[in-house]
Write a structure and sequence with these properties.
Elements lengths: L1 E6 L2 E8 L2 E8 L2 H17 L13 H11 L7 H15 L9 H13 L4 H19 L3 H4 L14 H4 L6 H14 L10 H16 L3 H5 L6 E2 L4 E4 L9 E4 L2 H9 L24 H11 L8 H12 L4 H8 L4 H4 L13 H12 L12
Antiparallel strand pairs: 1-2, 2-3, 4-5, 5-6
Length: 368
């Protein structure tokens, strides 16, 4: 941006807008030319996410159809995404995409929470909207007419990001005892397959910090025994592959865990399960009750790993990589638990494992 004097009383005001150089002649004083430039810049900044040709009239319903065809329909959670997209269609499908600005999204999100949805469910709706509008503002910007994601202007409360519940040393021991007891059918040495499966899932979550959906997406080829790593390939929160530590104790448990014939996944859906989405709520709650642990959810196992990692001197940036956080701010809530940055990830998980053991040298019986 600049102001050039062409002759006495005539100024040429220049600025850049919409990827082009713009200019206007101002007749009068230099102060008037500066005022005109400020107004032009202010108008540009206020409307830059709508920096489009007015004849672009791409409707939200068309955007929803395209997003479903190219992205949402391919996700593991496609059934849930379809429901969310249809709700968005009902509420703003007739709007032009260029009309959906920050205040519009804010009103839509407020309507979700005031309409009876839980905070967590509202956040899932928000995430779908954010991803869809991000595509609208980038790879589909010519069709939609926007080049900024209006959802970025909205701040929301994410309940899981604020929750700080993690297991104490005593609670970890109690949970491990409950896992070991429920592994066998009452009064026998016969394996209870439901709880044996849950036991393995819980141990993975607790000593790697993996999310539930990531664990259910694991395949046998993801277990890198020689490297002591697990490859996380689940297409969740960015879809990037990352690696998490696999301590020797966890590797030994995984080697004993029986594979399902003809199934590459460690934890394929049970027979009769509808869709690909899997949960562990009821059986996990039974374990928590048995261990005397209250106010705890499965996702808190992830918080437990992260908290103990930092309390044992872990590095914040390394933790962000392990957890798969795309933004370091998501990880910073664990910073207050850190003391020094010298411990390695495997050392943390092994210390947690020792705390859970009933006595030194404990071993689980081999499973056929």
């Amino acid at each position: 941006m600049s102001i050039h004097k062409e002759r006495d009383g005539v100024w040429k005001v220049r600025w850049r807008e919409g990827g082009r150089n713009r200019s206007v002649r101002v007749h009068g004083s230099y102060e008037l030319a500066k005022k005109v430039l400020r107004k032009k810049m202010s108008a540009r900044d206020e409307n830059r996410h709508l920096d489009v040709k007015r004849e672009v009239n791409f409707r939200m319903s068309a955007l929803i159809d395209r997003y479903w065809a190219e992205y949402a329909s391919r996700k593991r959670s496609s059934d849930r995404e379809r429901s969310i997209l249809e709700r968005i269609r009902r509420e703003m499908g007739t709007n032009f995409v260029r009309e959906v600005d920050g205040p519009t999204v804010q009103r839509w999100y407020r309507g979700l929470t005031e309409g009876g949805l839980s905070a967590g469910t509202a956040v899932r709706h928000f995430n779908v909207m954010h991803h869809m509008m991000k595509r609208a503002a980038t790879i589909w910007s010519k069709e939609t007419g926007i080049d900024r994601n209006p959802v970025d202007q909205v701040e929301i409360y994410r309940p899981d990001d604020q929750r700080e519940r993690y297991l104490s040393a005593e609670e970890m021991k109690a949970l491990k005892n409950a896992l070991d007891l429920k592994m066998y059918r009452a009064g026998t040495r016969e394996i209870n397959r439901t709880f044996y499966r849950l036991r393995m899932i819980v141990l993975i979550a607790l000593t790697t910090g993996m999310r539930m959906a990531e664990i259910f997406g694991l395949t046998w080829s993801d277990l890198r025994y020689s490297e002591g790593l697990i490859a996380v390939r689940a297409k969740l929160k960015g879809g990037r592959i990352r690696y998490v530590p696999m301590i020797p104790e966890l590797a030994a448990e995984l080697r004993r865990y029986p594979a399902v014939i003809g199934e590459e996944r460690l934890f394929p859906p049970k027979r009769g399960t509808k869709g690909e989405r899997q949960r562990v709520e009821s059986s996990f709650e039974t374990l928590l009750e048995m261990a005397g642990i209250q106010n705890f959810r499965f996702h808190d196992l992830r918080h437990t790993f992260a908290s103990w990692y930092m309390m044992n001197g872990g590095d914040l940036y390394e933790l962000a990589k392990i957890l798969g956080h795309s933004n370091i701010r998501m990880t910073e809530r664990y910073a207050k638990l850190g003391k020094t940055h010298i411990a390695r990830t495997g050392d943390t998980a092994r210390e947690m494992w020792k705390l859970m053991a009933e006595e030194e040298g404990e071993r689980v019986a081999s499973v056929i």
